[in-house]
Amino acid sequence: MLATLVIGLREGLEAALIVGIIAAFLRRNGRSLAPMWLGVTLAVLLSIAVGVSLDLIEQGLPQASQEGMETVIAAIAIFFVTGMIVWMNSHARHMKGQLEAEAAQALTQTRTYALASMAFLAVLKEGFETSVFLLATFSAAQSATWAAVGAILGLLIAVLIGWGIYAGGVRINLSRFFRVTGAFLILVAAGLLITSLRTAHEAGWLNVGQQPTINLRWLVTPGTVQSALITGVLGIPSDPRRIEVAGWLAYLVPVALFLYWPRALRPGPRTATRLRLATAGCLGLAAFFAFILSPSARLRLPARAPIVISTKVGPEQVGTARLIGSSSTTSALLISLANGGARTIDLPLDQRRREQHAGTDAFAWTLTSTSHLQHAPSTLSLDELVALSGGRVPLGFNPHENPGPFGASWSTRQELHVWTTDDVLVDANQQSVTVVTLSGGGLRTPRTITATDAAAQTGSSAWTVAASYRNEVAAALGAAVMARVNAKFWGIELPIALLAAALLLVASGLRTRLRGRDTTAPSREPRLDGASQRETARASN
Question: What is the C-alpha to C-alpha distance for residues 232 and 79, in angstroms, rounded to an integer?
């Protein structure tokens, strides 16, 4: 509420001052105020329409898009309020006189509608800025209702002060007023920057620097006065992240120093140029060290993935699996069993496909094979058939008509699933189905049944990569993605931004130095010799 009250008061007072001065000039010169009030009304309605439209557009978007729009609105609001603070800090002292001079010039050159247009544009500008800034502040506020109450109170107070100035009963030191409220709004804008950085992360735009820094839950307890002041007004959360702290300091410190550094201690043009060049050099060094010291993204995983089978007592490790080769050229899966057996399964490039697995974009293979079992029993009794079917007579068999024994032909169909990414084995499993074709034993035609591995005991296998390895891979891949994002930011994006800022400072410093030379250079007039000087003296006499 306090933040929106100050915003409404500052913006409303600026518009009220302009409208009050214009109204005073119109009244003093016997002109009608109706055109001016028409312009003010239109500007207010347009400003309200902008705010309502932005809010409706935001509510109609998906959640991630809403977060992105809040980020954009907050960035625009920070730009507006910073420009407003800087401009008012420089012009507040002479604002009233400048406005009176402009109004007098408009009144002498044109008609009343010029001043009405002046009031319309002034109120429209302030209204647009107020709509955007209040909308961003509402999104970050703990209570939208109290935020709206604060904004309305601020605007009403601004209108009352503007009317008092117009009537001549209120005297206010505009320079001191805007200087004090500007300090508060700098803190509000810095908190709004924290909010915009967080919504940018929630929108998926910013994933760097999300490590927690300091826990402020002991200070920012929900429902307390501290929480309302620190989080609700200043926008500081209870769990600020690294990028948010850096952004808060990067905004607050330079803006505060620029606005509130004592005028008596401000350097002259030559010293300011040297400071800019020195700062540019420091930024260049920072860009260099950020580039060479940026963290590298490394994926660290076990060399082999344990493979397990399901037993009555739980998973039992029977071997390991390892990826051989590169997924971009040729690759294979090496299966090493605990009993000493090993086999290599080729993963053809023409059979791979892209799909999401375990939360990552992976290459996937599905390989099938069918084989006949050589060492399986060639005959089965009825009791063995019941045991093979899980303790019950298979459907379609009659013990009286089909007493057995039966001739048995065994075959196994194996289906292998493999997922890899970045030449790392993400997951693998093998499913096995044993099919027994029975004949004789009272059967008129051959019949087939499906048997489980445990029941069949034929040597066929069904296994999967251990869940602990899959979880470790998923965590490591997520960490690697974040590491790549951080490496790109610290090693590429940040150095480029620092170098760009350094170049701007160098250009600004050189421009100031050249401008200073032009203003201090002595005028070069042609020197006259003795004869010419005597001729000039005679002509002057």
Answer: 21
Secondary structure in 3-state letters for 304-353? CEEEEEEECCEEEEEEEEEEEECCCCCEEEEEEECCCCEEEEEECHHHCE
pTM over cut 0.85: no
> Residue 139 in contact with residue 54, Cβ under 8 Å?
no
Name the residue type at position 342. Answer: A
Torsion of CA 129, 133, 138, 141, to 10 degrees: -150
Instruction: Give the helix/strand (H/E) hosting 379.
Output: strand 379-380
Averaged in consecutive runs of 10 residues, what is the pLDDT profile of the chain (541 residues)? 67 72 70 77 82 76 79 83 75 60 57 65 72 66 69 80 67 70 81 88 84 82 68 78 91 87 77 86 91 76 86 85 78 85 87 87 89 80 82 81 85 88 88 86 84 46 86 84 82 90 88 67 49 48 44
Burial class of 299 by CB neighbour count within 10 A (0 to 12, 13 to 18, 19+): middle
Q: Is the Cα dihedral 500, 505, 511, 514 positive or negative?
A: negative
Contacts of 44 (CB under 8 A, 6+ apart): 123, 127
CA quadruple 156, 162, 167, 172: dihedral sign: positive
CB 12 within 8 A of CB 126: yes
Nearest to 192 by CA among 98, 290, 274, 75: 75
> Looking at residue 491, what DSSP letter applies?
I
What amino acid occupies position 353?
R
Closest CA to 465 of 432, 433, 430: 430
Burial class (CB in 10 A: 0-12, 13-18, 19+), 79: middle
Q: What is the model's pLDDT at position 417? A: 93
Phi, psi of 240, rounded to the nearest 5 degrees: -60, 140
**Do 4 and 137 touch, CB atoms closer than 8 A?**
yes
Burial of 219 (0-12, 13-18, 19+ CB in 10 A): middle
Distance CA 258, CA 83 (A): 12
Closest CA to 9 of 107, 227, 156: 156
CA gap 254, 501 in Å, rounded = 14
Cα 15 to its chain centre, rounded Å, is 35
Rounded to whole angstroms, the Cα distance separating 83 from 225 reads 31
Contact criterion met (CB below 8 Å) for 414 and 429: no
Could you tell me which residues come within 8 angstroms of residue 200 by beta carbon, excluding any fewer than 6 positions away? 67, 68, 71, 206
How many Å apart are CA 198 and CA 204, to the nearest integer? 10
